[in-house]
Amino acid sequence: MNPPRDRRTHAVQAEALYLINLLLAPGLAFLVLLWLARRHRASVNPLTRSHLRQTLTVSVWAGLLLVGVPAIIALVGNLDHPATWIVLLLYVLCCHATLVLLGVLGLSRAIAGETFVYPLLGSRKW
Amino acid sequence: MKYQSQMVAKPYFIAAIGLFLGQILFGLIMGLQYVVGDFLFPEIPFNVARMVHTNLLIVWLLFGFMGAAYYLIPEESERELHSPKLAMVMFWIFLAAGVMTILGYLFVPYATLAEMTGNNLLATMGREFLEQPLPTKVGIVVVALAMLYNLSMTVLRGRKTAINLVMLVGLWGLAIFFLFSFYNPGNIVKDKYFWWWVVHLWVEGVWELIMGAMLAFVLIKVTGVDREVIEKWLYVIIAMALITGLIGTGHHYYWIGAPEYWQWWGSVFSALEPIPFFMMTVFAFNMVNRRRREHPNKAAVLWALGTGVMAFLGAGVWGFLHTLAPVNFYTHGSQITAAHGHMAFYGAYVMVVITMISYTMPLMRGRAANSPLAQVVEMWSFWLMTVAMVFITLFLTAAGILQIWLQRISDQPMSFMAAQDQVALFYWLREGAGVIFLIGLLLYIGSFFIKGKAATAD
After folding, report:
1. What's the pLDDT tens digit per position in B179-235?
2. Does residue A18 lie in a domain region?
3. Which of A82, A86, A114 sits opposite B289 (nearest CB)?
4. Structural domain containing residue A87
5. Which of B388, B410, B270 lies closest to B328, judged by CA?
6. Matching InterPro entries, A to Z (chain B) (predicted)?
7. Which of A85, A101, A105 comes nearest B401 by C-beta?
8. Please, what are the domains in chain B?
9. Which end of chain B, C or N, has fewer beta carbons within 10 A?
10. How far is the C-alpha of B424 from the C-alpha of B422, rounded, in Å?
11. Do B317 and A105 touch (CB under 8 A)?
């Protein structure tokens, strides 16, 4: 039996915004996610709190991992050397794909009305 | 198993697995030839090993699709197959044609094979992936038409569902687009233009319909989720696949002499091509999360989930990586393409066929699921093959980046062969990952021979 739709709505919205931030509108979707999290920070629904907390935390991590680390690789490495490009491109590709796949897992759990903790990066408190 | 005639799928699946093993062996031979150029030369030259590797892939996947169709369509149509005898006759014709073609590649010089098989009457040979001699191509058409007649009659007289209709449309599309392999214009631009109507419109068009139908069928069976829910997902996924994939053909037209507007059309539409694969991943995980029962065949569930993930990575992410025209200007025809090709074929089509085999084979052998030990071995094979394929892809991507730098970006660009020497380390690593893949495949084959009491749902 599916849980009532309204119980899942904000959880699904949070996961969708996390994915949109990664795939379509970086930054903009994060701002909407921030607004959503602020609006529902005192929600009595643990599903909403769980997914909002997870997606917000991991979105911040995603920013660091996808902007910060590549910037360090570019600064430390020599961009005139192909080895730097191999490391940089493979890193961004793998890191981005992993974050998207985790978002897919989170989204499917939200649709199913279940809580989800992102491996390694997610917060266990909500 | 509900209908006796579904048993015709079994020989198709066995042949598919046998040819899959052949494909991997030739992949390893060819992988070694990348770094030890004269390995097995002159017995198996590189061009022959490559042709056998890619043709075996196509043929075994076709066997897999046909087997899946012969299993799935009677069950969905709620009636016996129109003619199981015709399906079996076609199996032997297709197998004989496939084996003779491969033996022809291996033992007869290609030019002589072309002469022997009537290429002078209608020249269709000598093009990548469509190297098959004329009689083989005609044989494929005959087998496909007989199969479509058989399956269409079954559906027409039985229940129509989204799954069997999507499967049937996919198979009709497969047969229709193959007809372009007989069109071989003298103008090389036109030749390439229509060559993609077979190659692209198969793998990024109608095959996605077949894949979606197979995945939906298995997910209904192993999760018990309402058919209506799964069918809605299937409709949206195949709509997205066709909307993006058909005009997405344009990403092959950037530099072949086709009009320049294809750079825009190809870029925009193929940038959207990851969407159906993304949806398939969400679909598979969502259905498993919403499952109404625990199915004893855990290996089949794992393969189904793996299909979603790996298809998204291989076809979606690695496809997007080099699909935009300004990026493709540099990456075209490099090892980046090979990386994408390997993971996309494995993730989308190899895994979905194995999903189907994993679900149906125990049923055709009289049990709901294999023994727990057999399933553990099968799941080991899943992880070994999948992780090995991830590494093959990563090593080829690294080789591709270095190749592009050396050949196309550097101030002093190297020749193709000089650049190949420089990326040899990655080819060695790829070969190592290939050996792991072979071990995984051998474990997979071995899992069929492990006896024991059938697993039950927890």
Report:
1. 999 999 999 999 999 999 999 999 999 999 999 999 999 999 999 999 999 999 999
2. yes
3. A114
4. 5-111
5. B270
6. Cyt_c_oxase-like_su1_dom, Cyt_c_oxase-like_su1_sf, Cyt_C_Oxase_1, Cyt_c_Oxase_su1_BS
7. A85
8. 1-152 (1.20.120), 218-458 (1.20.210.10)
9. C
10. 6
11. no
